[in-house]
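ok trying this again, last paste got cut off
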Amino acid sequence: MKRPLPTSFRVAASDPRAQNTIKRLKEDHVSKMTGLEFEGTVIEAPRCVPWYPEGLAWVFDFPKVALRREATLKEFNSFLKIETAAGTIQRQELVSMIPGERSALYACICMSYKSDA
């Protein structure tokens, strides 16, 4: 069964509010998603991308419709929209966050994603 790619975003390292944004993301949103369900399916909270520096990249893999219908996820979606408008957060595909010299890592990530599908 095919599934859509996860949604990923990164916090701008050059923004002086970056660490505060990450703190708010963790405390105000990720912490509230533990055990959250949408239409009978457990929602996995956004998670930090382990290979991206300084914990600035994040990924989540739940239905976009859940962002509009479930109250906790609506708050998270509003946070993303506000921070995107402020320039603190940018949506970006994971593969485009990998520097060119990490092509072997890219191949591993792609293969592991395909094996999960």
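PB: full thing came through this time. DSSP finds four helices and six strands in the chain.
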